[in-house]
Amino acid sequence: MAQKEIDENGILEELEVEDVEKVDISEFDIVKKYDEGQARIVIQRNDFLIPNILQMVKDRDIMNLAPPYQRRKRWNNDKRSHLIESLLINIPIPPIFLYERDLAKYEVMDGQQRMDAIRGFFKNEYALTNLKKWPELNNRKYSDLPARIQAGLNRRGLAAVIILTESGQSDDSAMEIRQYVFERLNTGGEKLNAQEIRNCIYASPFNDMLVEISRSNLFTSAWNIPPKEPDEPHKVSKTLENNRLYSVMADCEIVLRFFALEDMKYFKGGMKRALDDCMHRMKGLSKRECLAYHDKYLRCLSVASRTFGSVLFRLPSKKGELVARHSVPLSDAILLGISALNKREAKIMQASSAKVVEKMKKLLNSEDSYKILVGRANTKSSIVDRIDLVTKMFKSIAKGT
Fold first, then answer.
1. Which residues span the domain enclosing 51?
2. Coil, strand, or helix at residue 375?
3. Closest CA to 393 of 351, 344, 340
4. What is d(CA 188, CA 87) in angstroms, rounded to the nearest whole number?
């Protein structure tokens, strides 16, 4: 297994796993919710030929493939190719779901991966691979297909269920409907993870800020994620698409942890609940307030990067050097430890870079402190101990002890 894959797998394992929470509600409220939902949502069914779809997608003002609450692109080349093969042999494809945000202007709630696969193939962005019924067409792009087959594909279509703009009585109710439907559709077969659900149901300036930080050069460099690309999220390179921290929004969750753990009085019921609560608590922040949080995070990350350099957030190898995989709990402790310093202490610590790295190496090579810093337990007490240990180390260096 390549080091990059080991690193990504280790980071993802450290992030929380989605669970299902039971919600108690009265029979009266259940019936009321059902009745109000039926009265609100107005739908229409359409069939679009492939050329119509391509024309709509070409104009992002008409068809937005990547509204803010959408997940990032996950499909690999085999999945895209199998969709094209299904079109070739005329296998029915699940309908796409669109929201009409304005008259004849749509955003994709479900079907983004399918529509992007079709768009990319007809634009000759990838060749077909691993086809089962049409192996003769493997390694061919759209332009390489016989004219007869191209014409056949142009006759295929996609069924669409459109939630009409009349459904939303206000901007808030419209967004609520979109988020509600998107969260529950998931017809593409890949279950939404916890951060993808947060991205959907807590769309807000704060959520936008998490995405912005995660695509900053400072953050992508720290976590070895490909840098921001000019056309994302509408179009991304294969390299970025294949980066698992990006594709499943783990990068945004790493940023969110900083804000969720900054004040432990809000930490109740485990990491997942703490992250959910933080998104809910911050949802009403203004763009100006979010900018202050944005600057604070990047300021802490900048100090950390200048102090630790290439060993930032890294665990020790068998030889004791800080060159193994990145660690999320360690990053929490380092960034929050820096956040607890005043400006003078941060400058002194940054100037003592070699000493800081050496002390961190010593901590991580001690069995007891390693358990505190990188232990998988996400209880409140273990998180507090982790942050306190690093904060005390930083403060002692700043005092010259």
1. 29-189
2. coil
3. 340
4. 16
Do 19 and 137 form a contact (C-beta atoms < 8 A)? no
The tokens describing 2, both together, are: 């390549």
Residue type, 375: G
CB 124 within 8 A of CB 143: yes
Measure the CA–CA gap between 69 and 183, rounded to whole angstroms.
9
Asked if residue 55 and residue 144 are part of one domain, the reply reads yes
CA angle 255, 258, 259 (to 5 degrees): 100
Q: Tell me if 381 is assigned to some domain.
A: yes
**Does residue 203 lie in a domain region?**
no
The band of 14, judged by pLDDT with boundaries at 50, 70 and 90, is low
How many angstroms separate the CA atoms of 302 and 46, rounded?
51
Condensed to tens digits (0 to 9), the pLDDT of residues 88-146 reads 999 888 898 888 888 888 888 888 889 989 999 999 999 999 998 999 999 999 999 99
**CA 61/CA 235 separation, integer angstroms:** 15
List C-alpha distances in Å: 91 to 115, 127, 156. 16, 20, 10
Residues 170 and 268 in one domain: no
Helix axes 328-339, 367-374, angle to 10 degrees: 90
**Per-residue DSSP letter, 270:** S
Tell me how many degrees the CA angle 387-388-391 measures, rounded to the nearest 5.
85
Is the domain of 145 the same as that of 266?
no
Rounded CA-CA distance 322/311 in Å is 6
On whether residue 321 sits in a domain, the answer given is yes
* E strand segments, 164-293: none
Together in a domain, 293 and 392: yes
> Where would I find the beta strands (DSSP E) of 266-357?
none
**156 and 294 both lie in a single domain:** no
For 84, half-sphere exposure in the C-beta direction (CA atoms, 13 angstrom radius) is 33
What span, in angstroms and rounded, lies between the C-alpha atoms of 109 and 240? 22
7 is a domain residue: no
Burial class (CB in 10 A: 0-12, 13-18, 19+), 119: buried
Read off the pLDDT of residues 42-68 as tens digits, 9 standing for 90 and up. Answer: 889 999 999 998 998 888 888 888 776
Asked if 145 and 252 sit in the same domain, the reply is no
One domain, residues 183 and 256: no
Q: How many domains does the chain have?
A: 2
Question: Is the domain of 185 the same as that of 46?
Answer: yes
The rounded Cα 401 to chain-centroid distance in angstroms is 41
- 47: which strand partners? 159
